[in-house]
Amino acid sequence: MISYKHMEYFIEVAQSKQILKASEKLNVSQSTITMAMKTIEDKINSKLLLRNSKGIELTYEGFLFLEHAKRIVFSMNQMINISDTSNFDTKGELNIALSFTISGYFFANYYAEFTKNFPNIKINIIEASRNEIEKGLIDGTYDLGLFNVALLEHKDELNYETILKSSRKLWVCNNHKFLKKRSISLEEISKENNIMITVDEANKISNTYWEKNSLIPNIVYKTNSIEAIRSMVANGSGVAILADMVYRPWSLESKKVEKINIIEEIPNIEVGIVWSKLNNKINNNAKNIFKKFMKLSKLID
Description:
Elements: H1 4-16, H2 19-26, H3 30-44, E1 49-52, E2 55-58, H4 60-82, E3 92-98, H5 100-105, H6 108-117, E4 121-127, H7 130-139, E5 144-148, E6 158-166, E7 168-173, E8 183-184, H8 186-190, E9 194-197, H9 202-212, E10 219-223, H10 226-234, E11 240-243, E12 257-262, E13 269-276, H11 284-296, E14 299-300
Parallel strand pairs: 3-4, 3-5, 6-14, 8-12, 9-10
Antiparallel strand pairs: 1-2, 5-13, 6-13, 7-11, 7-12
């Protein structure tokens, strides 16, 4: 039988890529974790982990199981924590604005869990740019916003709390020459065919670290589509710098995408929940419950 603990162990192994590191963080023996991994693979009759010189990597089936395990562990943690901090009978309605990346790659699981646990709070979701969200929060159109708060402009009028920090890494195809190295420099990356993401002002962030290091990358394609980049990278058409939050190891064509650490400091994506200082009393109970819900889910990559 696959237990909750087994899934916690699997998530940690997937993140740390080493049994030893996972055992140290979880404060259990290596043999306990090894047996848990074997139990999971035996029960679902699939190879989930591959061991190589870099440590442990997930197979395609391992990636699917990881996503499943994360959802279950997340749901359990929410049920344990939220009962002590929220009123399940609270009624209300919230207009929540999301940036495009947050909508596509972050919010879905949270929305599902929140609406399941708080059926009397209606959530209206709106996709918008960061500028539009900030304006809407200030004028009262939106109750809450979720976007990359590293770009927040109206700090004098808006409060925020960071709930996820996601580092950026280099994406390459699974036979790229860079995979022989543990980390790579921006200078080396600049000479490759670079594919630039432009959605949610990501190109602004990119320009800052290229300019800071006095480099001009060889950009062959710019796009708003993360999935287009994933496919192009997997096919060997270029490399891209993207956040772990949107990383999935397989393209739509079932080709592998690898990621490599970058030597220079690259800004994180900082997913934050944002609200107005002036309109804080509007929909106060429902708003506070949602903020607590998201804070309990705080993740740091």
